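Handout, section B. The chain below has 262 residues.
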Amino acid sequence: MDFKHIVVEHQGTEAVALIRLNRPKQLNALNLELMDELAAALHELDNNAHVRVMVLTGNDQAFAAGADVTEMVNATALEMDLQNRFAAWNRISSVRKPIIAAVSGYVLGGGCELMLSCDMVVASETVRIGQPEIKLGVMPGAGGTQRLTRAIGKALAMELILTGRMMTADEALRLGLLNRVVPVECYLDEAMRLAKQVAEFSPIALMLAKQAVNHAFNSFLDEGLLFERKNFSLCFTGPDQKEGMQAFLEKRPPRFNTPATE
């Protein structure tokens, strides 16, 4: 497999495959092309009889610092809907084999949503996790309002989403978002160690167990995701999204003046 924005490391008959997000200059911002590549790679490995577990990582500075704002800053609500930008996310959610995220540095916006789409998470002590979309005049649109709420509860999810603040590794571990936290020089090795431990077991049992756990976690999730995506697109009907994203690109504070009601 040859990709532009990700690197796949898998040696023949090895049971664990590693995927690295590879847009370091953009802090691994998730553009449409990267997401399509990631979905394709995961499904290729999902159908590889030798692979039992996949590890998904970025780099020490950032797992992924969010979606690529340059793709959305001038978009309309209709354009966002017609882009079908969540098709790759749906494909990732349908992967049958376990996916372990190895995260460090910034895990923000779409990066947080991608982490939440994985089955287990090993983090470095430097990790900073959050959903800062509110600062751009929009809201999470790839599962943040749904998976984060299910994971940590309504009150804390509401706080994180409505303030955009970042969690430290210790807080995220305490809330149950992470399996373990280790020094930055160890997080990928620890994730690979966990993956190899899981890969020792029956591949059929692993897939069925993952399916069963997800069934408990995802009850009514599909309906919630559709509602989230509709509201995400509605954010693009007014001027605040344009102001928020333009301010982000210009590295200045946004000026939100649009009243919520007339």
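Note. Strands lie at 6-9, 16-21, 53-57, 62-64, 99-103, 106-108, 120-124, 128-130, 166-167, 180-182. Compare this with the example in section A.
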